[in-house]
């Protein structure tokens, strides 16, 4: 999102797949999420350096996301997994936050993929490709 807000002339549209929405990842939730992983940082660093840095910067990353998300004007397609990475009440809050973010502007589209896990592109690759092509065609018609 930060790149889109910094370079709106370079990005004509985007497909977000099961992102953590600005509504869902509050400052408090970011702090709590970071704490969940603090005991595992050494093993996380060995397995995924990207996720390691995400955990270390969770509060800053989520704050930047909340700040820039409102300024994004380009067409977006937001694809949500029906089997979210969250359980219980957080599952519904996650889905509601994604839907609100997707419906915030008229040039956005929300797609819920009921039977997909967090990595929607593994469970429904054709749907993901179809949505990318659809958005590409839509922004190039303008």
Automatic annotation (TrEMBL):
Domain of life of the native organism: Bacteria
- The protein's name: Alpha/beta fold hydrolase
Q: What is the lineage of its organism?
A: Bacteria, Pseudomonadati, Bacteroidota, Sphingobacteriia, Sphingobacteriales
The alphabetical list of record keywords is: Hydrolase
Q: Name one GO molecular function term.
A: hydrolase activity
- To which species is this protein native? Parapedobacter deserti
